[in-house]
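Researcher: I'm comparing several assemblies side by side, and this is the next one on my list. It has 966 residues spread over two chains. Same procedure as the others: predict the full complex and return the structure.
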Amino acid sequence: MSERKPIPGITKERTEKLIEETLAAMPDKARKKRAPHLGANEPTVSPCAVKSNKKVVPGVMSQRGCAYAGAKGVVWGPIRDMVHVSHGPIGCGVYSWGTRRNLMQGTPGVTSFPMDFTSDFQERDIVYGGDKKLETLLREADELFPLNKGLSILSECPVGLIGDDINAVAKKMEKELDKLVVPCNCEGFRGVSQSLGHHISNDSIRDHIIGKYEFAEEAGPYDVALIGDYNIGGDVWAAKPILEEIGLNVKSVWTGDGEVEKIAATHTVKLNLIHCYRSMNYMCKVMEEKWGIPWIEYNFFGPTKIEESLRAIAARFDETIQEKAEAVIARYKPVMQAVLDQYRPRLEGKTAMLFVGGLRPRHTVGAYEDLGIQITGSGYEFAHQDDYDRTAPEMAKDTIIYDDVSEFELEKFVEEFKPDLIGSGIKEKYVFQKSGIPFRQMHSWDYSGPYHGYEGFKIFARDIDMAINSPTWKLVKGPF
Amino acid sequence: MSECALKKVTTHSPEEVERVKDWINTEEYKEKNFARTALVINPAHACQPLGAQMVATSFEGSLPFVHGSQGCASYFRSTFTRHFREPAAATCDAMTEDGAVFGGQNNLFEGLENAYTLYKPKMMPVYTTCMPEVIGDDLTAFIRNAKQKGHVPEDLPIPYANTPSFNGTHIHGYDAMLNSILQYLTEGQKIEGKCTGKLNLIPGFDGNTGNIREYKRILEAMEIPYTVMADTSEVFDTPCDGTYRLYPGGTRIEDAAESINGKATISLQKYSTANTMKWIEEAYSGQKLVMPMPFGIKKTDEFLMKLSELFGKPIPKELKAERGRAVDAMTDAHQYLHGKKFAVAGDPDYLFGIVTFLLEMGAIPHHVLCSRATKKFQKEMQALLDSSPFGKGCAVYINKDLWHMRSLLVTDPVEGIIGDTHAKWAARDARIPLFRIGFPIIDRVNLHRTPVVGYQGAVNMLTMIANKFLDIKDETCTDQWFEMMR
């Protein structure tokens, strides 16, 4: 994609002045810590100058979660046929129960387990340790849910602090139950954000799962795996059919609507397709090093990116796949054009600001642009340098980039840039809606979705139009 | 599992899946399920700091401050925001591994200073997550040091509460934080012989802002001056008028400070204010009372009569008329609830309220379940059930979760379930309608704005339940039984 045209009115001076004024409100130490995380975009300068993956500055109202949230909420939770145990006190399991919208097939409590399993630690567990309780608990879970394909143990803060050995318990119970029992030391205090939780999960998948199974049917030339799609609002169910339509055979999905044995057998596929780079690139690298499986990134948000991605994916295969990819693109062109004809006239020239987790602030830019919306600011809760390097070229020059933005900062930036839409998370949603600014929750698609793929774009376009052009916004200011 | 032998990816046969599907609905399964000793599945309670945050946010200009992990703070904020569909400001000092090793004092210093500078609160109540509790951070010393070192002004109120998640539930965190804030704000404020003439009303952990507004409406109708502590209604039910307010309202700090000289103090939730009321009993002037939440007619009558007695005010005509209308609604519609069996799950004080209402309607609270409660609660609930012929044969389950409830529902079915959103899985499996009352309700809109207390609350609950039953009748009856009137 060629470099974006500058956005009228957005200049380096204006963006830098805004950042400076915002930082001025902070105590010295906080200002010094926050300054490197904010910047005016330089699309052509690499690496991106914005710093990331540093500790949250205490007291600034960050939107970040923790390693447990990354492990349970993002990576492990979506695997539908495992029992995921939130090991520790009651809170973490309850708050993460069903709140990420990683949809799954199966019969709940029989073949799928979208439930809250917890050891509900009490004071005595802190004093005496929870290992024995954990053994009993795993036995009970396996007995009550006999069709589970494995159990995961996700440790909460106190478990690590008191020195419980969930790894030893898992090893013992894996033998006893003759099932995958996977420990994941994802205590919330580890690291600086959800991101370490993804990494720790990936480590445990590498050590305990991958390479332990093989597919019942023989390997084929078009076998691929979808990596880093968590089926938020049914995204996987919109993405998979397109890949199948171009002739690929999606053998497993990490981890949306996931099945653990298929994930364990992924090492035999021909190509890994990675969507959420932040959470799963490490696994692609592991599979590349150990089993020689190549991988590429793709983006299924909006027709422009879908076309680019389908061509890039097809280029890794033979002419049959390439022809089919072109056929699919041709087939959906009029469908997508109809969507654009309907919505683009209503959205052309609008602007949006984004702040989401570790993928969408850059991946969804193309989808907004397809609708005629320009992005004036973008940033991540828990991205790393390589994410920002990938973001800079997707953004127009001098637009504002913010890492781990605090509520205070984001409010200032929004005040200055006055976007027509904000795409961010639940905690920010009502702050901006009270101000009369249209908003979509972009971690969870605001209880809508899917947003991936051709089917998803129809819904995305409808939702964005609905948000921006809802007549309710006109009622915010009273007549008296 | 050995490294070399790869297992094949398997699928369960449809017969096996069917067998287990049926099995989990059997008495045999129920017994196994109830024999669990370590595993908790789908609990209906959360942790202490969540309750502490509800209190901490409900005073004017007050910024809740979590001492501990960033992730916890995010979870509390998300939970409130999802339930109320409102902003839920709170900050935290983002302790990480080094905090776990060296203690959280430096985080607290920096966090308090940054939060104070950026958000200019009038008060910053501090409460803890698991981590500082396990390592034993001394908040008394830390906060004193923070003030001495000038990170925050000496006179900034920073009450704190220890709220480890591995102890109690959200209602106990509510109690701890309320107790702490009131002790802090009222210190040195007690004046012998001075009386504000006001009622201090403590609603307890209540996710229903409509309830708080209902209490205020009743007090205003009775011309009784009051202070609600802590008042969530202006915090979690704010207007959308183009302005975001970081501090949208809540109990005025001055009012809370002088509450110690009140004419009377009433808590409407026994279990979520136990320690606070114990302290108030000793420290406060005036009369001190713990009353049940005014669910249904009789409990509302008692509440109004008590107010009338305490303040020498007659019960106004409009409330009498309201009572009459509520009773009218209940007699008109009693047939749709009479003899109907219900399962109820929730917080202790809410459970008493809901069960009271059901018994008043001639409905049967067949299964009553609290996922964390004491034997004392069980006894008191049993006594309430025993007070009515409609409580006969009903059972109270404590320290049981919603997976236990699922077993009860499939082996011994009821006609309706009352609980929060968490109960929807059990309700779906048992194909029984769920009436959402309690916290959190994160899958329906506006229920937190609709009061369930007072006379109007009784009408609201009755309307919701009876009409759903009628909907079901219309949707499921055969043509010959489909009628114009119901």
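Model: For your comparison table: Residues 454-476 of chain B form the longest helix (23 residues).
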